[in-house]
Amino acid sequence: MGFEKFDFFWYFKILYRNFGKKSISFSTFCNVKTSPRQVSQVFQKAQSAFAAVEDLESLALFEQTFLGKKGEIALLRKSLKELSPEEKQILGPEIQKGFEVISSQAEAFRTKHASKALMAQLEKDWIDVTKTEAFSRGAIHPMAQLQRRIEQIFTSMGFDIADGPEVETEWYNFDALNVPGTHPARDMQDTFWVTHDQKDAQKNVVLRTQTSNVQIHWMQKYGAPLRMIAPGRVYRNEDVDMTHDATFYQVEGMMVDKHISLAHLKGAIETMLAEVFEKDIKVRIRPGYFPFVEPGLEVDIWFEYVDKNGQEQAQWLEFMGAGMTHPEVLRNGGIDPNIYSGFAFGFGLTRLAMLKHGIDDIRLLSSQKKDFLQQF
Ligand code: FA5
User: Fold this and answer.
1) Digit-coded pLDDT (tens) for 190-203
2) pLDDT for residue 3 is more than 60
3) How far is the CA of 327 from the centre of ligand 1 (A)?
4) Residue-number span of the structural domain to which 361 is assigned
5) Within a domain: residue 87?
6) Is there an atom of ligand 1 within 6 Å of 174 CB?
7) Which residue, of 97, 125, 153, is where some domain finishes?
């Protein structure tokens, strides 16, 4: 029987049928709390309430009111307790039947509307996969591109790629590199101290000011002979301008073996610059002082760029410090300077990106500006 026909007159029919067939007296019904009339009224109420249900939210309310544990049908069921067994036999199944009809109608409504809601959501989220021009593509950052190129060049010359801590002890960042606490060279690099109050340099902590700390870690770990480059980030507490940043990238290089000389250093640098620039560039080498090399030198490159006013500009830009590794540094790395010698260099990878692409302001390289980055 459909819910639509579950009406008042139908209940009179039940009443008549049951009085007739099962001989239940009308007075019996008059004495009990739940009557067929009351049952009919509840289901009629449910019918009109269901007609007003228009979405899943109002359906939930409807279910709570009529089908819930404390709903109207549950109350009808509860009141059956007051009836005689014969009366229960008549009304109990009728209430159950009505309950099932309403439940299945509510379920049908839910299924229909849930799929409607899903279709609406799918329609909203629809993606035209053929419309490729609408998407902007990600790309590899110019710094990452350059670092990969440097790694290719040096691995082709037998160098390993090394790595070391950015948060470092004072000892690895300075002392082990022959820069004792009293040495004026420590002021050459303005330092971000993490802890500065210990007497023991093994305990004080800095943000590394140079990738040279990796030299010591690598020597201690692998001994001689060794060839490695260590690209990585460094930190300096200094004023920022067009060619100086407070955090930038360096690439450290080191080669230790028997009979290593300045000629090996020169060969490695020349090979790298030829591969990176793929054209003639102007390079200047001059003496330089770093406590961890002897002799020490500095390399500058002629920097040509267009400034913000569209004017062509050129100047020397400091690019690299380098030299022959100091015997004390080899010793701190656990290597005997009487048997081995080595060279080391450290250049600014961020400066190399400026030089290669003619970028007039170092800050652009850490700016995340899309229109700038899209050029590479
Ligand atoms: C050093 O950091 C030494 N550790 C390099 C070295 C390694 C020398 C091994 C000898 C042997 P320096 O402070 O000059 O040196 O920095 C090296 C390079 O980092 C510079 O030539 C420059 O290219 C880059 N650089 C230095 N300071 C900045 C800065 N504030 N912003 C951007 N690049 C910088």
Assistant:
1) 899 999 888 888 99
2) no
3) 21
4) 142-373
5) yes
6) no
7) 125
